[in-house]
């Protein structure tokens, strides 16, 4: 299947896309390339392939939904530029 210039102009009109002749020629080429690729996909034999609901086929790992302190404050504060009493220390910004 390929599209001619008149068909692409009609599609552009229906989609309310303003095109000039130079753009129309490029659109004809682009759309025909896309249709050619779709026709290539139709040639792939998928008779013995189950349909996919997910590309991974795996569920997400789940953990308990609970709030904890992480139990490792030293590791959390290891990269803090300044700390005080086990917390990040930041400069006062409001008087």
Automatic annotation (TrEMBL):
Write down the superkingdom of origin: Bacteria
Pfam families recorded? GatC
Its EC number(s): 6.3.5.-
Is Nucleotidyltransferase there in the keyword field?
Answer: no
Q: Does the keyword Glycoprotein apply?
A: no
Keywords attached to this Swiss-Prot or TrEMBL record, sorted alphabetically, are: ATP-binding, Ligase, Nucleotide-binding, Protein biosynthesis
What this protein catalyses is: L-aspartyl-tRNA(Asn) + L-glutamine + ATP + H2O = L-asparaginyl-tRNA(Asn) + L-glutamate + ADP + phosphate + 2 H(+); L-glutamyl-tRNA(Gln) + L-glutamine + ATP + H2O = L-glutaminyl-tRNA(Gln) + L-glutamate + ADP + phosphate + H(+)
**InterPro entries named in the record:** Asp/Glu-ADT_sf_sub_c, GatC
Which purpose does this protein serve, as stated in its record?
Allows the formation of correctly charged Asn-tRNA(Asn) or Gln-tRNA(Gln) through the transamidation of misacylated Asp-tRNA(Asn) or Glu-tRNA(Gln) in organisms which lack either or both of asparaginyl-tRNA or glutaminyl-tRNA synthetases. The reaction takes place in the presence of glutamine and ATP through an activated phospho-Asp-tRNA(Asn) or phospho-Glu-tRNA(Gln).
Subunit record text: Heterotrimer of A, B and C subunits.
The family note in this entry says: Belongs to the GatC family.
Q: What is this protein called?
A: Aspartyl/glutamyl-tRNA(Asn/Gln) amidotransferase subunit C
């Amino acid at each position: 299947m390929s599209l001619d210039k008149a068909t692409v102009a009609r599609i552009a009109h229906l989609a309310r896309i303003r095109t000039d002749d130079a753009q129309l020629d490029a659109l004809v080429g682009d759309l025909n390339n896309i249709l050619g690729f779709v026709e290539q996909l139709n040639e792939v034999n998928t008779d013995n392939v189950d349909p996919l609901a997910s590309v991974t086929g795996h569920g997400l790992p789940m953990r308990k939904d609970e709030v904890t302190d992480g139990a490792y404050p030293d590791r959390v504060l290891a990269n803090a530029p300044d700390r005080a009493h086990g917390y990040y220390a930041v400069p006062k910004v409001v008087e």
